[in-house]
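Memo to structure team: turn this sequence into structure tokens by end of day. - J.P.
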Amino acid sequence: MDATGYQTFAETPPDPADYPGMAAEMAVAGSIVFERTSISVDTLNPPPWWHFRAGADWRHPLGPDSSITNIQDHPVVHVSWQDVEAYAAWAGKELPTEAEWEFAARGGLEGADYAWGNELAPNGAMLANYWQGLFPFANQLLDGWERTSPVCTFPPNGFGLFDMIGNVWEWTKDWYTWPTERYKGRRHCCVSANPRGGRQRDSHDPTLSIPIPRKVLKGGSHLCAANYCRRYRPAARHPQPIDTTASHVGFRCISRLLKKSRAP
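Reply from structure team:
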């Protein structure tokens, strides 16, 4: 708990009543931490690279024995939807919509595959923190980072914004709309040109028995790879349960400029 008295989701033990069938050992405060595998694995099966770690939170990103000493210029991770909403309100800011986030990420390059153009690594240049090599066991570290990197490590986009692609996924304020019957069986990785948000009731994964709403994440993370998700693109998106925190999910806030009213 910090000086304001706020306790993040990952610092709060879950109530078993909210999760029928929860194993007793899971009813402790903690979060999900990535650990690379030692061998190649089937990336279509339930991810073997995610591990729930008791005591993992924003101050202890790898678990209770870790800290944010020497990485205070890295993005904050292990934060839930309610955490980032609370922070934005405290700071007098807010989270962007999905459309606002994507417009900002493109930096004026409409239709480009990436935030800087149509080549992922033009002339071999690393322009974002993502996974180079075969995920989740062989990272070549061509960008220099195993996990998160300091903010502003890589060049800004055309709008002067840093880290809009890679490093950590970022929460938006929009509810994720689950694919309709028309799109069943397809990978719903991207969205229409001008998303308008969705409804909370349509954001539940229909294959799960516990109806947990999901918000849209944007930007990809340091774990996105060419052989896995390729979601280091402005158009890419991901549905994140509002009660789930992880070592590759963070956020950014926006400030809105108030228009001056005309004199009567």
